[in-house]
Every structure is written in structure tokens, then in C-alpha cells.
Amino acid sequence: MKSLSLIKTWAYYVFVWMAFTTITNWFLVSGIKWVLQFFDLEDVFLEDDIARYVVSNYQYLEGFLFSIFFGTIFFLINHFLDRWKILHKVTFAQVLLFKSGLYLLGLILVFWIVASLLMALDIAPIDDLGFLSQKGNHHLIVLPIAIMIIMVTIGINFMQQIDRMFGPGKLWKIFIGKYFNPKVEERIFMFLDLKSSTAIAEKLGHIEYSRFLQHSFREMNKVVARSQAEIYQYVGDEVVLTWPDTPSNRLNAVKTFFDIDDEISKNKGHFKSVFDIVPVFKAGINAGVVTVAEVGSIKSEIAYHGVTINTASRVQHLCNQYSSGLLATEHALVIKLLEKQYIVDKLGWVKIEGKKNEVCLFSISRKSVENV
User: Residue 13 burial by CB count (10 A; 0-12/13-18/19+): exposed, middle or buried?
Assistant: First the structure.
């Protein structure tokens, strides 16, 4: 599944760059040809090697090769750098500059590869490429194209970082106005809250406690990225995750909770050495119908409203009462699937604050090694 996801991501980047280069080349070639025909300048203009090259179909071939090579480099940079811990500890501007620098180096490499291929394979006539070796002429073509692609690359990089800050996909949904008019959806919500947060805050102090949360959420986000969850909100020491309500995502939500616990456990040495505390989270899960709407004209965001999300929050607050790390309502579970991997204890019907009807609640825990 992971390999398939990587292939899809790579194909997406290649497709985006292919679409960009094809559309750009079409406007460039068609626009110049139309102007030449309109002013009857074809015979004069096309006497020049550079001009013939600009309006030739080799532009599309170069665009195709560029898309494959640069799309691959774009994918590799994003794939590996997003997993590089150092970049999670620097500012937005530093990430933007560093990635843009790598993109520019990749751009130079791809230009060299494409030019070398065209010349080595004799795909393009030497007459059309001859201008590249003419002193003072090559910059007339290379420089404008390079500047355009550099600006587009930096722009895409900037939008990627903005999208990362909003949450993957949220910026696009706001841009197209998907939730400009409220819509009804069925979703799963998981509220994760740091255990003993008040005591930890008092022990560490405000600044160190904030750093502690940053480190904790950083480890959590590694799992969230793999789980296809959407981070709805960070509220103090609480994180709200959401998924579309499907049977597979109901199982995925439970798995995500325990994967987060595993990820933090792998880094407990770091937490002990830096903070002398290892974070432990408790969670409540619920699923059902919510209203989704774009709210705010100054700071726009996508908000979820309804009893479903309020119930998930209330369920999380019951974790201490039932001495459970993970509680979930019946609506959020596929019991038969869960029981194959976890211990599922039915707690019965429970009165939830602010809700008229009682909710059937379950506590979920790992199976011990001998029971697996």
C-alpha cells in the first residue's frame, strides 16, 4: 500500500508538470504563430534559427522530457525532505528557501539532461539546436524559460508550504469554495488529549511546556500523515482528527491511536533526556452526521458543527472516569473487525453531558502478546 501511494504521488507531480509545460508551450507556439500570420511576418521571422526553434513542435518534446525528469526530482525532494527531522525545527521561510534552492539545482540538472538527450540521440535537427552554441544567442531562449520555470517552482513551493500550514487539501477546498455553502457529511472524529497536562505544565513551566507539546505533536504527525487523517484543530494540548466515515476508516481511527502511542514510545529516550517526561494521550472517538462550512472572512477555515463532534469531545473526557486510554461510541466502531486485533469491552449505555439520549460506550485496548 505504501509503495502504491508513493507511485501515485510521483505520477501526480509528473502529471502536474506535464500539464503546465504542455499548456505553456501551446500558448507560446500558438501565440507566436498567430501574431506572425496576423502581421504577415512569417517569412522574415522564420529565417532565424532561434525563431524556428521557438515555434517548432520540439517544444512539446522538451516539455514532455522535462516533466518526467523534473517531476521525479520534485517528488524526491518533497518525499525525503518532509521526513527530515531538521526541517521540522526551522521556520517557514527557511524551509521555503532551502527547498527552492534544491529545486533550482534540480532545474539546472534537468535542463542539462534534456539538452544532452536531444543532441546525443539526434532527435532534434542540429540546425534548430545550432543557436545554442552561438555565442550570446542561447540566453535569448534559455533565460526567459528558466526565469518563468523558476518563478513557477517557487510559487508552487510556497503554495505547498501554505497548504501544509492549513492542512493538506484544505487550502484547495477553500479556494474552490467547496464548503462556501454548508454541506452535510458523515465523518469520524477522534479527540486526543494529553494526560496529566496541568501537572506537566506546572513542572515544566510555560515555555518548556510549549516545546514539549511541539515535540509531542511532531511525533504524532508522522502517524497522522500515514493514516490519511485530517487534522481538524489543535486546541491547547488537544488534537482533533477526522476521517470520512467508512468501515475501513473506523478501524483506521483505532489503529491510529495505538500507532501514535508506538511512535512516541520509540522516542521516549528523547523525551526523557530533554523533558524528563514521556507524553501519554487519551482519546475519544465518535462518528455520525455533521455540517461542514467555510467560516470567517478574515481568517477563513473549514469548520464542523453538530452533535457528533460534541459527543466525541465528551467521550474523551470520560477516559479518566473509566480508566481507559481509548473510548469510542458504538456509532464509530465495526466491532467484528476490531475484535480480531483488539480487546473491546462494552461499558454499556452512558449518559453524556449535553446529550438527551444515552450513548453505548466501548473501551478499546491492545491484546496481550499471548492473546494475539
Answer: buried
CA dist 78 → 60, 157, 184, 242, 364 (Å): 26, 10, 34, 24, 36
Summarised one tens digit per residue, pLDDT across range 32-80 is: 777 777 777 666 666 665 566 666 677 788 888 888 998 898 888 877 8
DSSP states of 69-128: HHHHHHHHHHHHHTT-GGGGGS-HHHHHHHHHHHHHHHHHHHHHHHHHHHHHTT-S-HHH
Domain range annotation of the chain: 2-166, 172-371
Domain 172-371 in CATH 3.30.70.1230? The answer is yes
Short-list 371, 351, 339, 251, CA closest to 311: 351
pTM: 0.70
Q: Measure the CA–CA gap between 185 and 291, rounded to whole angstroms.
A: 6
Residues 6+ apart with CB under 8 A from 49: 127, 128, 130, 131, 134
In the chain, the amino acid numbered 39 is F
Q: Residue 63: is it exposed, middle or buried by C-beta count within 10 angstroms (0-12/13-18/19+)?
A: buried
